[in-house]
Amino acid sequence: MKKLLSVLLLVVMVFTLSVAVVGAAPPNQDGGTDHTVQKDDWLSKLADKFLGDLFAWPAIWEATNAKAATDDSFATIDNPNIIEVGQKLYIPSPEEAAVILGAQAPAAGELGSPEKPIQVLFVPSVDAGVIVTGGEVMADALNKERHHQPGRSGR
């Protein structure tokens, strides 16, 4: 009788644990794919290859970090300019990428409205009447301006 009770208890425990594991699994993704970083990969190149838009790289960054939050096999990308060979990334489907990128876009009227005007700042560094056509001319003009600023000592 003790053996039967022990086996029954073991079956109940296994069933309970399997239900908990299935319930904790991340939601099924919409056709995205896992990718292991290869030599010469970068996010914009992967976005162009998989999503057809090199400017969609923030979707890969966001999706990979979301996966990494629940699955340690995915890399956490702190700096999107630095990915390393061997890191596991999640490439979202084009539909997932559109949702991610849409969430990042400002709402209509949020930019350039009377309530939130776009600020454009001009910082003069050389005489505005001078037309600069070459790198040396620009460097000379900037160096000249830098050395003649009030409160700074020249050469």
Textual characterization of the structure:
The chain is mainly α and 155 residues long. The protein has a domain at 28-104: LysM domain (Membrane-bound Lytic Murein Transglycosylase D, Chain A, Roll), CATH 3.10.350. Helices cover 45% and strands 5% of the residues. The protein is built from 5 helices and 2 strands. The chain has helices at 2-24, 43-51, 57-70, 94-104, 135-147; strands spanning 33-36, 88-91. It has a two-stranded antiparallel sheet with strand order 1-2. The longest helix is centred in the first third of the chain and has 23 residues, at 2-24.
Q: Determine the structural class based on helices, strands and strand pairing.
A: mainly alpha
Instruction: Write the CATH fold name of the domain at 28-104.
Output: Membrane-bound Lytic Murein Transglycosylase D, Chain A
Q: Secondary-structure element order, as H and E?
A: HEHHEHH
- Largest sheet entry: 2 strands, antiparallel
The portion of residues forming beta strands comes to 5-15%
> What is the 3D form?
extended
Strand order of the largest sheet: 1-2
Estimate the mean pLDDT confidence: 74
Determine and state the CATH class of the domain at 28-104: Alpha Beta
